């Protein structure tokens, strides 16, 4: 059996709001969160809850010629929201920390990648595309909080 390696993509951005305000915005999966999603996300829905830990969200994601459905359950820890996919090994983590007069927000996605030659290409190219998309999401977050 081929070895499956961890694949990870990460992007960060400065936001001119307190960490508490950013986390409050990110916890709101019904109203706030859909405003920062890019066109790569479709069929976004809240299946359970809607605010913070215990919330379950679903969406369809398409990028780089790949598409898949996600169903993520939200967990919280100090300064962070973790969204674990119930359909795969994918995990996204939002980390918010104080930075100057605002906050630094980091969005990281990770999953167990494929093995073999396909896995090599996945580890090389998937993080590049996802990092770009995460950068767009974080820019939309900064703009949404500023308005």
Describe this structure in words.
The protein has helices spanning 19-27, 116-146, and strands at residues 6-15, 41-48, 56-63, 66-77, 80-85, 91-99, 102-112. It is built from two helices and seven strands; from the N terminus they run βαββββββα. A hairpin with a 2-residue loop joins β4 (66-77) and β5 (80-85). The chain is of the alpha+beta class. A seven-stranded antiparallel sheet has the order 1-7-6-5-4-3-2, covered by helices on one side. It has a single domain, classed as START domain (Alpha-D-Glucose-1,6-Bisphosphate, Chain A, domain 4).
Query: What would CATH call the architecture?
Result: 2-Layer Sandwich
Report the average pLDDT across residues.
Answer: 90
Can you say what the CATH homologous superfamily is?
Answer: START domain
Helix content: 25-40%
| Class derived from helix and strand content | alpha+beta
Number of strand segments: 7
- SS field, number of helical segments: 2
Q: Spatial order of the strands in the main sheet?
A: 1-7-6-5-4-3-2
Approximate strand percentage: 35-45%
* Annotated CATH topology: Alpha-D-Glucose-1,6-Bisphosphate, Chain A, domain 4
As residue ranges, the low-confidence spans are none
How many domains? The number is: 1
Shape type? globular
Main beta-sheet strand count, sense and barrel state: 7 strands, antiparallel
Element order: H for helix, E for strand: EHEEEEEEH
- Give the CATH class: Alpha Beta
Q: What Rg is obtained from the alpha carbons, in whole angstroms?
A: 15 Å
Distance between the termini: 51 Å
């Amino acid at each position: 059996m081929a070895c499956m390696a961890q694949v990870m993509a990460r992007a960060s951005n400065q936001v001119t709001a307190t960490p508490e305000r950013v986390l409050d915005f990110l916890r709101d999966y019904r109203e706030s969160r859909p405003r920062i999603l890019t066109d790569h996300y479709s069929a976004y829905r809240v299946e359970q809850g809607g605010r913070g830990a215990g919330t379950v969200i679903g969406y369809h994601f398409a990028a780089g010629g790949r598409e898949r459905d996600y169903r993520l359950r939200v967990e919280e820890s100090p300064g962070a929201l973790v969204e674990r996919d119930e359909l795969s090994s994918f995990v996204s983590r939002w980390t918010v920390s104080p930075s100057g007069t605002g906050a630094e927000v980091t969005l990281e996605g990770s999953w167990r990648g494929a093995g073999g030659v396909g896995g090599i290409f996945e580890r090389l190219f998937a993080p590049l595309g996802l990092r770009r998309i995460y950068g767009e999401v974080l820019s939309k977050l900064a703009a949404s909080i500023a308005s």
